[in-house]
Write a structure and sequence with these properties.
alpha/beta, Aspartate Aminotransferase, domain 1, 2 domains, four-stranded antiparallel β-sheet, 15 strands, about 15% strand, binds pyridoxal-5'-phosphate
Length: about 450
């Protein structure tokens, strides 16, 4: 049986991915081998438990696959223990908290508006902010991690767990400094490297492994694997708590999960193998080079970049001086031009629904083979779209905003200048086919 409705929508999405510039920094193109594993018969199998200790029969091949994934993760990162079963990054972070803290324990993380992640204790609306006493640290006026603030808050509130990791922060993280802060109050240091894991593997960014007790990474961003996550326990972690590996494993299963997604685990194993090869190192360097060229070219066109530049795969454009909610309008207009980004808060933002920033990143376009020449072209197109948006303003009345944005999207689709850029984007994309095809 063919479900043509779904099949047509998959084809529509495949076409979109081929014909547009994927500049969302958390997205990438998984290889054909990874996608084949994810769509394989492995998805049919139940295997609650761990290799050699399953609650279900028939797991001979599944055990081997999971052991291979674990072995590759341990070797690639130089850690004594890896769990490859977390369904994704958010479950993985909740599992880490389940293992290391009690409900009501104090935890600490970088605030969302400063580039942190929801699962690091964002107050009120998330499990990590609701079920734990969450303390958030922020940035200095020049948009760098405020280690003094982090230290002072740690000393005052004595967190049990400190999450250190970012989702919209463009600079290198100081793991040693974070560990010193964790040690000053006896906290566990959890490094969440979801965004920068590919840069760490490529040797472009320092690894947290010598400092963190636990390392978490999603597998679908710079790593180019399937949607999933891994939790690593380091030698430092085992020194602090010899039971740490056991605690993490039981928090994953039976603590928070049932049957692992074996198809995903096979995809993770493949992505770890590919990440160990020399062309991955080259890719990691190019991702950062491309981001720096993009950042510089945008600045040359008068666009403000949060922090004034980037040391990693992403940057945040700041339109707060243009109008409130400028990021929302720029992201919508860029989408009409085939340049796909996400709206994002900038440090001065108070309204996360209509933020002033747009986050862009280079992992996916680098995977397609684009280089500095293409980054300069992309910067030109972005700057032109920004010019078009400049005369637009979100209405002050909140109830009018949704309708305004809907109408704005339609106007941008019909705009002649946007139409020209859309065609140029399509031509560029045609020169760089999506790896592994559609
Ligand atoms: C730093 C960080 N941690 C955790 C997550 C959560 O991952 P997922 O979306 O797979 O739940 C993300 C995703 O954006 C992230 O950037």
């Amino acid at each position: 049986m063919q479900d043509t409705e779904i099949q047509n929508l998959i084809e529509q999405e495949a076409e979109r991915q081929q014909d547009t510039l994927m500049l969302i920094p958390s997205e990438n193109y998984a290889s054909k081998a990874v996608r084949d594993a994810v769509g394989s018969v492995l998805a049919n199998k139940y295997s609650e438990g761990y290799a050699g200790r399953r609650y279900y029969e028939g797991n001979e091949a599944i055990d081997e696959i999971e052991l291979l994934a674990i072995d590759r993760a341990k070797k690639l990162f130089g850690v004594p223990h890896a769990n490859v079963q977390p369904y994704s990054g958010s479950p993985a972070n909740s599992e880490i908290l389940f293992a290391l803290a009690e409900p009501g324990s104090t935890i600490m993380g970088l605030a969302l508006s400063s580039g942190g992640h929801l699962t690091h204790g964002h107050p009120r609306v998330t499990f990590s902010g609701k079920y734990y006493n969450s303390i958030q640290f922020g940035l200095t006026p020049d948009a760098k991690i405020d280690y003094a603030d982090m230290r002072a808050k740690a000393l005052e509130h004595k967190p049990k767990v400190i999450f250190f990791g970012t989702t919209a922060y463009p600079f290198i993280l100081d793991w040693e400094q974070a560990r010193k802060i964790a040690d000053s109050v006896g906290a566990y240091l959890v490094a969440d490297v979801s965004h920068i894991v590919g840069l760490i593997i490529a040797g472009v960014h320092p690894s947290p492994v010598p400092y963190a007790h636990v390392v978490m990474s999603t597998t679908h961003k710079t790593l180019r694997g399937p949607r999933g996550a891994i939790i690593l326990v380091t030698d430092e972690g085992l020194k602090k708590d010899p039971d740490l590996a056991k605690k993490i494993d039981s928090a994953v299963m039976p603590g928070m999960q049932g049957g692992p997604h074996n198809n995903t685990i096979a995809g993770i194993a493949i992505s770890l193998l590919l990440a160990g090869q020399s062309d991955f190192t080259e890719y990691g360097h190019k991702v950062v080079d491309n981001a720096q060229v993009l950042s510089k070219s945008l600045q040359d066109k008068g666009i403000t970049i949060v922090g004034g530049g980037t040391e990693n795969h992403l940057l945040v454009m700041d339109f707060s001086s243009d109008s409130e909610g400028g990021g929302t309008l720029v992201a919508a207009a860029l989408n009409a031009a085939g340049i796909v980004t996400n709206r994002n808060t900038v440090p001065s933002d108070t309204n996360p629904f209509y933020p002033s920033g747009v986050r862009i990143g280079t992992p996916a376009v680098t995977t397609r083979g684009m280089g500095e020449h293409e980054m300069r072209k992309i910067a030109e197109w972005i700057a032109e779209v920004v010019e078009i948006v400049k005369s637009e303003k979100l209405p002050v009345a909140k109830e009018e905003r949704q309708n305004y944005i809907k109408d704005f999207r339609a106007r941008m689709q019909a705009n002649g200048r946007i139409h020209i850029i859309r065609n140029l984007v399509r031509d560029l994309c045609a020169q760089f086919p999506v790896p592994g095809g559609n």
